[in-house]
Design brief:
five-stranded mixed sheet; alpha+beta; Neutral Protease, domain 2; globular; binds (3S)-3,7-diaminoheptanoic acid; binds zinc ion; 34 strands; eight-stranded mixed sheet; Immunoglobulin-like; metalloprotease
Length: 867
C-alpha cells in the first residue's frame, strides 16, 4: 500500500526520546550490485521490547519488492515514501525485506552511490534508510553479516565491515564475498565498497601482540600517494595504546579513498571511507598542511573505533559525545607528534573565528542540540570544535591522570552500548571526585560567553585585584542564560618579564582560577609592583575576553609570556587594537616603534620555532575580524587588513628579506623542522610580495619549486597581491595538473578567493575548466565555497555575488542538498551587514525559501535565518 509523504519537514526534539520498540540482534544483508538497479535483501532477527505488535521502519527512495515474516510472505504492512509499518507481528520473528535501489542516480552521495565507477556507501547520519527499511537510529545495535555479489572484472574488490568469511565465483562473470562483523553496531556504521583499486598493505602489531592487517585502497596508479596515510594510521594505533590504553579490536583495518564524498571521512567499523583529499599525498601534489590534515583525519577516524563505535550515541542529539571527544583526541595526537603550540593556535583560530560566528548566527545551538530537522545540519563547528573545547575544559579541571581514570570508567560502564553526554560527564565526575554539576551547563547552553576583567593594584598593601564577570548574550533560540563553570588560567608578570608567584589568601595558588558566578573577585597578595596579567592562557575556555590591555602590556607579553600560545595571543590582541581603530575611524594604520620592534624580535630570534613565528605573523582573517563588530563593514575591514599588512611589510622589510633568504633548502622532507622553515618562508613571501621591489620573488620560488608547499606559497602570494606573474603561474599550474581534480582544487580555491572585483568572472570561467564538476563536492567547495568567503566578490555591492550564490544553491538543492546546506552558511548571517547588502542577501534567501522541492537541509536554515 502506498501513501504520499507530508510536505512540511518536521522537527525532532531531544526531550522526546523513547527507547526503540524492538531489538534487532542480527542483520544479514545480501547485495546484488548493478549500477541502476541493485537488489538488497535484509534479513533480521527481531524481538519486541514492550509487547508491541507493530514495527515502524524508516526508508527513503526505496522500491519495495517483498516482505517476509518467518520466511512467509506478509501482507500486513503500509509503506509510504519514508516508512514501512508492519502489523500483527509475533513477539520474536525473522524479518526479510527486499528492496531495489538505483545507485547511479544517487547524486546526494548518501546511502549507496557510485564514485567514479566504484560503489560506496555513506550512512551517517541517516543514510542507511536509503539502502533498506530499518530501525535507522544509533541505539539499535545488531551483528551484521554482508554478502556482496558483483561483476568480477569491473569490481574485483568487494568490501564490508569486519572479517572476510568466504568468497566464490558465480555465473556470468560475477563473484561474491561474505563479511562478518563480530561487534554489534548501529546502522550508521555500516559500509560497503565495490570497485577496482590499487592496494597498499602493511601490518600493525598491537600491544597485546596481535597482528592487524592494514589495507589502503586507492584509484589505480595512486598507490605511491598513500604512504603518508599508512604511516599516520600506524602512528594513530600506537598513540591510542600509549596515551589512552586503547587497542584495536579486529584483525583487519581498511581505508578506501574515493573522489566523490560529502565530508572528510567516515569511521565505519573496520572499513573507513575517506575523501581522497585526506589520503593522497606526495611532495609534488600536497602541501605540508595537507600532510598534517591527513595525519589528523586518519587519526580522528581511527580514534572513533573506541569513542564512537565501541561506545556510540544513544540518539543524534548526543553527537558531541563521540565527535567532541574524538576531536579532542585527534588534537592531542597531532600535538603529541608535532608542535603543541601551533596546533593549539590553529584550533583557537577556528573557535574564535567561525565557531563564534556560528554561535552568533540564526543556527546557533548548544553542543548538544535540543531540536533538529535535518541531522546532517548539526555536524557543525559547535558540535565538533566547541565540543572538543568542552572536553578540553574537563581535562583542564581534572588533570591528565584523573581524566584518563574517567575514560577508563566510561568504557567499563558503557562499552558495547549507546550512551549519552550525561553518561560521559558522570564517569568523569565519579572517577575524579570533581563536581561537574554546574559544568554540565556547557552542554545545554548555546552562545559565546564574554568574560570581562577589571583590575586594580594597591601599592600600599601590595595586592592586585581581578574583578571577573561573565555574561552570555541571548541566542536565536535561547533567551535565558546562566553562569557557567569556566576554567580561567592567569599568570602575572613584572615589568622585567619575570613571573609573580600567585598567592591568594596567604597560600600559593595554581594559575587556574575557577569562575562559577556572574562576578567574582580574586585578590593576589605580595605583588611587589603593578603587574601585567596574561589572561585566559592556553585559551582554557571558549569565551570572548574583555580587558583593556595597553599596547605596552601586550608588547611585554609578546616578548616574555612563558608559553607560546600566550605570546601569539598578545600579538593578535595588539593587531586587533589597530584593526578596530582603523575600521571604526576609517584611518590609516601607523605602527609604533615598540610594536614593530616586537615583531622584529620574533623574526630575528633563532631560538624560536619558525612555525610559531609564522603563526605570530599571520593576521586574523576577514571572517574573524567581522565577528568583532555589531555591523560588519566589509570594505572597511578589507582596507584595514590590507593596510596593516603593507605597514608591517614596510616596517619589517629588512628582517623579512633576511628570514626569507636565510632559508636553507636541503632535500624536501615532511619533518616538523622542515615544515616550520617552509611556513616561515611562505609567510615572509606573502608580506614581501606587497612591496613593489620584491614582486619577482614569487615567480622565482614557483619556477624553482620541487614541492607543492612552495608552489602554493608562490601562487597564493601572486593571487593575494595580484602580481604581474599571476596569470602565467595559474596557467602553468593548470596545464600541468588539469588531469587531476584533487590537485586542481588548489587552483579552483585561488580563483574563488581572488581579492578583486572581477573574482566572479574568474569563478564562472573556472567552472568551464575540464577538471570542474558540479557533481563533485570537493570541486564545488574549493571554487564556489571559497568564493562565498570572498569579501570582494561574494559581497560585491551590486549584489552579483549573492545572485550567483542563490543560483548555485538552487542547483545544488536538487542534486546534493548536504553540500548546498554547508555552502549557505555565509548567507544566513545577512542581518549583520549594511542595509544594502542585508536586503540583497535577504532577497536571495526569500527566493530559495519559495523554491519548489526545497530540501529539508536548506529549509531548516533558511527558515531560521528569515524568522
Ligand atoms: N562521523 C563522520 C561525519 C558524518 C557526517 C554526516 N553528515 C566523520 C567524522 O566525524 O569522523
Ligand atoms: Zn568524527
Amino acid at each position: 500500500m502506498q501513501d504520499t509523504a507530508s510536505a512540511q519537514p518536521v522537527a525532532k526534539y531531544r526531550k522526546d526520546y523513547t527507547a526503540p520498540s524492538h531489538t534487532i540482534s542480527t542483520l544479514d544483508l545480501l547485495f546484488k550490485l548493478h549500477n541502476t538497479d541493485t537488489l538488497v535483501t535484509a534479513t533480521s532477527q527481531v524481538t519486541s521490547n514492550n509487547g508491541a505488535t507493530e514495527l515502524a521502519l524508516v526508508g527513503e527512495q526505496l522500491s519495495l519488492t517483498e516482505v517476509l515474516v518467518d520466511g512467509k510472505p506478509w501482507a500486513d504492512y503500509v509503506s509510504t515514501d519514508e516508512s514501512l509499518t508492519i502489523s500483527n507481528l509475533p513477539a520474536t520473528f525473522e524479518l526479510t525485506i527486499t528492496t531495489q535501489i538505483n545507485p547511479s542516480a544517487n547524486t546526494a552521495l548518501e546511502g549507496l552511490y557510485l564514485s567514479d565507477g566504484a560503489f560506496c556507501t555513506q550512512c551517517e547520519a541517516e543514510g542507511f534508510r536509503r539502502i533498506t527499511y530499518f530501525l535507522d537510529r544509533p541505539d539499535v545495535l545488531a551483528k551484521y553479516t554482508t554478502t556482496i555479489e558483483a561483476d568480477k572484472a569491473e569490481f574485483p574488490f568487494l568490501l564490508s565491515n569486519g572479517n572476510k568469511l568466504a568468497q566464490g565465483d558465480l555465473e556470468n562473470g560475477r563473484h561474491w564475498v561474505k563479511w562478518e562483523d563480530p561487534h554489534p553496531k548501529p546502522s550508521y556504521l555500516f559500509a560497503l565498497v565495490a570497485g577496482d583499486f590499487d592496494q597498499l598493505t602493511d601490518t600493525f602489531t598491537t600491544c597485546s601482540g596481535r597482528e592487524v592487517a592494514l589495507e589502503i585502497f586507492v584509484d589505480k596508479g595512486n598507490v605511491d600517494r598513500a604512504h603518508h596515510a599508512m604511516l599516520s594510521l600506524k602512528n594513530s594505533m600506537k598513540w591510542d595504546e600509549e596515551r589512552f590504553g586503547l587497542e584495536y579490536d579486529l584483525d583487519i583495518y581498511m581505508i578506501v579513498a574515493v573522489d566523490f564524498f560529502n565530508m572528510g571521512a567516515m569511521e565505519n567499523k573496520g572499513l573507513n571511507v575517506f575523501n581522497s583529499k585526506f589520503v593522497l599525498a606526495d611532495q609534488s601534489t600536497a602541501t605540508d598542511k595537507d600532510y598534517l590534515g591527513i595525519e589528523a583525519v586518519i587519526g580522528h577516524e581511527y580514534f572513533h573505533n573506541w569513542t564512537g563505535n565501541r561506545v556510540t550515541c544513544r540518539d543524534w542529539f548526543q553527537l558531541s559525545l563521540k565527535e567532541g571527544l574524538t576531536v579532542f583526541r585527534d588534537q592531542e595526537f597531532s600535538s603529541d607528534l608535532g608542535s603543541r603550540a601551533v596546533n593549539r593556535i590553529n584550533h583557537v583560530r577556528i573557535i574564535r573565528g567561525p565557531q563564534f560566528a556560528e554561535d552568533a548566527s540564526p543556527m546557533s545551538h548548544p553542543i548538544r542540540p535540543e531540536k533538529v530537522i535535518e541531522m546532517n545540519n548539526f555536524y557543525t563547528l559547535t558540535v565538533y570544535e566547541k565540543g572538543s573545547e568542552v572536553i578540553r575544559m574537563i581535562h583542564t579541571l581534572l588533570g591528565e591522570q584523573a581524566f584518563q581514570a574517567g575514560i577508563k570508567l566510561y568504557f567499563e560502564r558503557h562499552d558495547g552500548t549507546a550512551a549519552t553526554c550525561d553518561d560521559f560527564v558522570a564517569a568523569m565526575q565519579d572517577a575524579s571526585g570533581v563536581d561537574l554539576t554546574q559544568f554540565k551547563l556547557w552542554y545545554s547552553q548555546s552562545g559565546t560567553p564574554t568574560v570581562t576583567v577589571v583590575d586594580s593594584y594597591d601599592a600600599q598593601n601590595k595586592t592586585y585585584t581581578l574583578d571577573i564577570s561573565q555574561r552570555t548574550e541571548p541566542t536565536a533560540t535561547q533567551q535565558e542564560k546562566h553562569a557557567l563553570h569556566i576554567p580561567f588560567d592567569v599568570e602575572l608578570y613584572r615589568n622585567d618579564g619575570s613571573v609573580i608567584t600567585p598567592i591568594i589568601e596567604g597560600k600559593e595558588h595554581s594559575t587556574l582560577l575557577q569562575l562559577t558566578q556572574d562576578s567574582q573577585r580574586f585578590v593576589f597578595e605580595q605583588v611587589d609592583e603593578a603587574p601585567t596579567p596574561s589572561l585566559l592562557r592556553e585559551f582554557t575556555a571558549p569565551v570572548k575576553l574583555e580587558y583593556s590591555y595597553t599596547e605596552q602590556q601586550l608588547v611585554l607579553l609578546m616578548k616574555c609570556a612563558t608559553n607560546e600560545v600566550s605570546r601569539w595571543d598578545a600579538g593578535q590582541t595588539l593587531m586587533s587594537l589597530y584593526i578596530k581603530e582603523a575600521v571604526s575611524n576609517g584611518t590609516d594604520i601607523t605602527l609604533s616603534d615598540d610594536v614593530l620592534n616586537s615583531y622584529k624580535a620574533l623574526l630575528t630570534d633563532t631560538t624560536l620555532d619558525s612555525a610559531f613565528v609564522a603563526e605570530a605573523l599571520t593576521l586574523p582573517p576577514h571572517s574573524e575580524v567581522s565577528g568583532w563588530f555589531d555591523v560588519i563593514d566589509v570594505d572597511g575591514i578589507s582596507k584595514a587588513l590590507t593596510d596593516l599588512k603593507l605597514t608591517l611589510a614596510k616596517g619589517l622589510e629588512a628582517e623579512l628579506v633576511n628570514a626569507y633568504q636565510s632559508f636553507t633548502s636541503e632535500s624536501y622532507d615532511i619533518s616538523h623542522p622542515s615544515i616550520a622553515k617552509r611556513s616561515l618562508r611562505n609567510i615572509c613571501l606573502s608580506y614581501l610580495s606587497c612591496l613593489p621591489q620584491h614582486q619577482d620573488l614569487a615567480k622565482a620560488l614557483f619556477d624553482g619549486s620541487d614541492n607543492m608547499t612552495d608552489t602554493m606559497g608562490a601562487m597564493s602570494a601572486a593571487n593575494q597581491c595580484d602580481l604581474a606573474c599571476r596569470e602565467a603561474l595559474m596557467t602553468a599550474y593548470s596545464e600541468r595538473w588539469a588531469h587531476d581534480g584533487l590537485v586542481m582544487d588548489k587552483w579552483f580555491m585561488l580563483q574563488g578567493i581572488k581579492p578583486s572585483a572581477d573574482a566572479l568572472e574568474g569563478v564562472k570561467a573556472a567552472m568551464e575548466h575540464s577538471a570542474f564538476s558540479m557533481q563533485n563536492p570537493n570541486r564545488v567547495r574549493n571554487l564556489i565555497g571559497a568564493f562565498f568567503a570572498n569579501p570582494y566578490g561574494f559581497h560585491a555591492i551590486d549584489g552579483s555575488g549573492y545572485r550567483f550564490a542563490g543560483e548555485m544553491l538552487a542547483q545544488l538543492n536538487s542534486t546534493n542538498p548536504q553540500v548546498a546546506s554547508r555552502l549557505i552558511d555565509p548567507m544566513l548571517k545577512f542581518a549583520r551587514y549594511d542595509e544594502t547588502r542585508k536586503s540583497l542577501m535577504r532577497k536571495e534567501l526569500e527566493i530559495l525559501r519559495d523554491t519548489p522541492d526545497l530540501a529539508k537541509d536548506l529549509f531548516e536554515k533558511v527558515e531560521a535565518a528569515l524568522k
